[in-house]
Design goal:
By secondary structure, the chain is an all-beta fold. It contains no helices and 11 strands. The protein has strands at about 1-5, 10, 20-25, 30-40, 45-50, 55-60, 65-70, 75-80, 90-105, 105-115, 115-120. The strands form 2 sheets. Strands 2, 4, 5, 6, 9, 10 and 11 form a 7-stranded mixed beta sheet that branches. Strands 1-3-8-7 form a 4-stranded antiparallel beta sheet, with no helix packed on it. The chain is elongated, with a radius of gyration of 15 Å.
C-alpha cells in the first residue's frame, strides 16, 4: 500500500509562515501529480496548490503570491511554503498524490490522501 505522512502544521500569528511537508512511501512505481488541499469547518475541501512530476504548478487565486509548492522527486515528498498567513487560511490541510503502482501484470493509477494537518492563524 501507499502512505502519505504530513507534518508542519500548527499555530501561527497573522502574517507568519509555516512549511508543510508530505512524504509518500510504499509500493510506488512513480508519483505523478501531487498537491495540497484544505478544508475549513463547514466548507468543502478545495485545491490550494498542485505540482506535476515535471514541476509545473498551479494555485488557488486566494494563495497566489503567498504560497509556494515544491517537490523532491527523489524523496517522493511535496512541500507547501506558506507566507503571509491570514485568518482565512485556517483549515485542515491535506496532501494528495496521484501514484502509479504495479498490480499483477498491469500498471494502475491511484489517488491517495494524507491524514490532514491543522493550520491555525490567530493572534
Amino acid at each position: 500500500q501507499v502512505q502519505l505522512v504530513e507534518s508542519g502544521g500548527g499555530l501561527v500569528q497573522p502574517g507568519g509562515s509555516l512549511r508543510l511537508s508530505c512524504a509518500a512511501s510504499g509500493s510506488i512505481l512513480r508519483i505523478n501529480a501531487m498537491g495540497w488541499y484544505r478544508q475549513a469547518p463547514g466548507k468543502q475541501r478545495g485545491l490550494v496548490a498542485g505540482i506535476t512530476s515535471g514541476g509545473s504548478t498551479n494555485y488557488a487565486d486566494s494563495v497566489k503570491g503567498r504560497f509556494t509548492i515544491s517537490r523532491d522527486n527523489a524523496k517522493n515528498t511535496v512541500y507547501l511554503q506558506m507566507n503571509g498567513l491570514k485568518p482565512e487560511d485556517k483549515a485542515v490541510y491535506y496532501c494528495n498524490a496521484e501514484a502509479s503502482r504495479i498490480v499483477g501484470a498491469g500498471v494502475y493509477d491511484y489517488t491517495y490522501w494524507g491524514q490532514g494537518t491543522q493550520v491555525t492563524i490567530s493572534s
